[in-house]
Design goal:
alpha+beta; globular
């Protein structure tokens, strides 16, 4: 499937308004805000949307994808944290360390697939579930400076398919002299490095979810 990259220097909500709609607004209202052009683009492949952040604020990237599965099935998969190592690349283990109401603290342990510069890191995220189609998270602690993000799911084609949007912002705390030197050098010399890393992560996540659901 052809990848389509949209680098936008405009307000994100102008293109995917439903992502900023509160759950209480009602599904009909949220769906009416989905840009028709974006729906057509998603029929052809994945979309990456790069937000233009104000100076000094976090960089966010969103990946959108069309999944040939009902929203209920997509929601079930992305909220079953124990299944993550089975279909997310580089995720070694996932452990729920705390669960209270709709909030879940989940410890992730990952191993980078880079052969030249292998990395292992761990972090805990607090997920807040808002069924039937919204999940957000923030960093509790670990080998990240920060991590924020969300899933937004919208049913289409009479509920047979789902438009899924994965929004993310994070920064890794490099370990070891060599890793710190390389990461700091690349980040300083190439400001787009961070955007590229976020984009690659977001694309990998949405494609992994799509592949897992559609192969069944």
């Amino acid at each position: 499937m052809k990848r389509i990259f949209l680098i936008l220097a405009i307000i994100l909500s102008a293109f995917i308004g439903p992502m900023v709609c509160p759950a209480s607004a009602g599904e009909g209202k949220a769906l009416s805000l989905i840009n028709e052009r974006l729906q057509e683009v998603l029929k052809k492949g994945e979309v990456v949307i790069v937000e233009e952040p104000p100076v000094g604020q976090k960089q966010f990237v969103t990946a959108g994808i069309r999944i040939n599965a009902p929203r209920e099935e997509v929601w079930k998969l992305i909220t079953d944290f124990d299944l993550y190592p089975g279909f997310f690349p580089e995720v070694e283990t996932v452990t729920v360390v705390k669960h209270e109401g709709n909030a879940w603290d989940v410890l992730h342990k990952l191993k980078s697939g880079m052969s030249v510069l292998p990395l292992r890191f761990a972090y805990t995220l607090r997920f807040v579930l808002e069924p039937p189609g919204r999940m957000t998270w923030t960093l509790v602690g670990g080998d990240l400076k920060y991590s924020e993000g969300s899933w937004e799911l919208f049913p289409v084609e009479g509920g047979k398919e789902t438009l899924a949007f994965y929004r993310i912002s994070y920064s890794i705390v490099p370990k070891g002299f060599l890793v710190k030197t390389v990461v700091n050098y690349v980040s300083e010399k190439s400001p787009v490095f961070g955007v590229a890393a976020l984009s690659a992560t977001a694309l990998t996540v949405v494609k992994s979810v799509k592949d897992e659901l559609e192969r069944k």
